[in-house]
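Study this one:
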Amino acid sequence: MNGKTHVALGVAAAVALGYDPLTAPLVSTVVLVAGTLLPDLDHRNGASALRRPLPRPLQWLARLPAVVFTHRGPLHSLLILPPLLLVAEHVFDFAPYGRMAALGCVAHILADSVTITGVPLLWPLLKRRLGLPLVRTGGRLERAIIPALIGLVIWKGRS
């Protein structure tokens, strides 16, 4: 799926769980959105919205996963989340926002699991890609999802 779809799905998932991006602190929404893009750091053109605002040395560092991993590889595994959360919470004292980033990552991984390519949900235990091949990345169905999710978020926000 494309970045816009991942962001829309991540925000919609958060709203479905009771999160209100209009009244929540801006930083938590930014972290949620960053989490929705984080798994695509393994793609050389993916997650550019995460890389662009960084200083040059950090931009180079953020490109490293695309050099080391294949796209939809280890960063698209649900098993990568616990170590990332541990680092976020204990090394960077990022506990309040680690869950928002994790929610964004999970939304991303589950969204990619319904594409034709699938994802290695349980890497490294199972390297085979799993999923339901329902959506073609960039296809008509994906393009229809975004406005529907934005409408859902707006509707849910008003109720």
The CA atoms of residues 39 and 133 lie 19 Å apart. The chain has a mean pLDDT of 88. Helices lie at 3-16, 26-37, 48-51, 56-68, 81-91, 95-112, 140-158.
